[in-house]
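Dear Dr. H.,

I hope your travels went smoothly. While you were away I took the liberty of generating a structure for the chain from your last submission, since the lab meeting agenda had it listed for discussion. I wanted you to have the full record in hand beforehand rather than looking at slides cold. The sequence, exactly as received, is reproduced here:
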Amino acid sequence: MTYYHSLSLTFAFTAGILLTLGFKDFYPDLEWRFRRRKNIPVEDAVGQSDVFQDGVTLHDSTLDGNEGPEPIYQTPLIPEGIESCIGNTPLFKIKSLSEATGCEILAKAEFLNGAGGSPKDRVALNMIHTAEENGLLTPNAGDVIYEGSVGSTGISLATLCRAKGYLAHICMPNDQATEKSDLLQKLGAEVERVRPASIVDQDQFVNRARALATEHTADPSRPGRGFFADQFENESNWEAHFNSTGPEIFRQTAGRVDAFVAGAGTGGTISGVARYLRPKLPSVRIVLADPQGSGLLNRVKYGVMFDPKEKEGTRRRHQVDTIVEGIGINRVTANFEAGRDLIDDAVRVTDDQAMAMARWLVEKDGIFAGSSSCVNCVAAVNVAQQLGPGHRIVTILCDSGTRHLSKFWARVGDVGSRAGITLQDVLEAGSKA
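The corresponding predicted structure, in token form, is as follows:
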């Protein structure tokens, strides 16, 4: 009797274990089916953790595999409006320049900003937000934003004005690439092309925009107000890069940057990024990339605004004597001065060097860059050679070459027309002529 009794207990114990295991495996599926039949929300039954009052959490691992009901996914956050596509642009290594110099030359792809396709998207959005906060702009009230621009800021403003309930009136020099003014018109902006002139001339494109904004606001017969964006002096410019571009670069590089290289038109990008990076990376070098004819290099190196090409009797035009658009200037701006003391050095880049770099980037990397981006890349290579192999240099790719077809790229010539070009050929372009 004792033998059969022990055998029965053993059998019962084994059966209990098997039943428990089976119940554990099949119960979640049975519960899921039961709740579906009773119209009880499935998400209340599965895909959620059970939390007890004492804080202990149990997780149903049976739902982690392919068996059982499909997992419940959280609804993704959908960005709202084109303005939400600005910022967080990729940072990538330019392979050919990195291999040729032994340094990591990284490019911030600012041409991928989603509104106007340049770093000016950040600036335009911040200037509009700041003006709204200060009561200077009211959406859908007939307000017009006036700006003097050589292209990129105007395009960003025109795009965002339409998105946020404003109109844009852009004044620009009439020697800029025609595709820029054509695009502005397609974006619904009113475009006024004026002759190139010195900043002391009241008809200079920036002064013209300022005057039009004042006239609009003073005219009681016109709806809304005129707002002069004033990208050169408005500190919302450099603040946009301090609050976004700088932090993004620091995060994307994990805080390892040996040099930051950028050109300056208004000066907002280099000042904003420098002001963010320097306190966190005291040894980082900030280097200005300056096209021929611009006075900013001498402002950095010697504290004066003068370039030999600008002396009386030698200028071919009233502004900076270069085919490069978007950077280079011969006057002091508030945005440049905001970071000037943080700039360690400046590199002069000629038109010939910029055009040679444009061809190089397409031929070696498939990068079709605008003129200012090519200037930045020449300067970045120069800095890489100064620092030596093993360093990391970050620069800016501002916009696409598609905005420079009729002027800069018309002079660049055919891609692939020179076989066996070296990086040294790029740096010496024009010097042997």
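Two observations you may find useful: DSSP finds 14 helices and twelve strands in the chain. The chain has a mean pLDDT of 86.

With kind regards,
E. W.
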